[in-house]
# Entry
Amino acid sequence: MNRELLDKLQDAAANGEVEKAAAATKEALAAGMDPIDIFENYLVPVMDQVGEKFGRLEIFLPDLMMAADVAKAVKEVIEPSIKDRATIGEGRSCVVLGTVMGDVHDIGKNMVSLLLEVNGFKVIDLGTNVPVFDFIKAAEKEQAQIIAMSSLLTTSMPYMAELIKALEETGKRKNWKVVVGGGPVSPEWAKSIGADGYGKDAREAVEVCRRLSVE
Ligand code: B12
# Structure
């Protein structure tokens, strides 16, 4: 555990110090740290801490927004080195990805998008606050194999179930594999709504999409 990086990211997230976060991330990369580890093992826990403080009313919405800016800055710094290692060109399946209706959280979804792309998937990223039928329309238009949904809010999670229900009711369920993920989403929830796959982080998102592409 690189204590110094963790401290710097914690401070930066707490104070909205985007430049400090970017500098600490650059130092960590220069020291040979893996860019995805920086994201998953350092940034994500810091964001979780910020979320917990928000949940306890110790900090407020502007603080969350500052932490989000810090997360975006870290991702910007690590992105080129992730792309450098890419295995693009493997011609894997097409994934239609988005954050479900009512939800604007996109930091995790964007990481999933990046890792899928660098692993050779064609990603149609619909952004955030995506209505159920927009996922289906895009999957039809792009002849996608997988629909992947992200949700960070317990209030937006039900739209994942709604999409699957809509596919079943229109006789289209077999046309796509459905993958779900995001903070409050669990393997149990995924199973209960009849999703084909779940990933706890962006690496697992790639693994599950790989597995479902060959099935
Ligand atoms: C940053 C943040 C924000 C930012 C988001 C900015 C942005 N552009 O994304 C802003 C300030 C906008 C925000 C707003 C709100 N937020 Co907010 N936010 C957070 C915070 C602190 C971090 C989220 C984050 O980016 N984490 C880091 C990323 C990398 O992790 P991740 O998203 O989980 O993604 C990883 C995995 O889950 C997975 N994954 C993600 N998507 C997918 C998809 C697939 C298919 C797969 C396989 C995997 C996968 O891979 C990713 C990489 O490892 C969380 C706390 C937390 N612990 O998550 C609260 C949190 C999610 N927010 C919360 C709340 C309440 C809100 C607001 C309602 C606050 C308000 N009063 O307005 C609004 C909602 C706005 C809306 N309609 O969406 C609550 C939700 C509580 C709940 N039970 O639903 C949380 C948990 C904080 C808390 N403890 O109270 N928020």
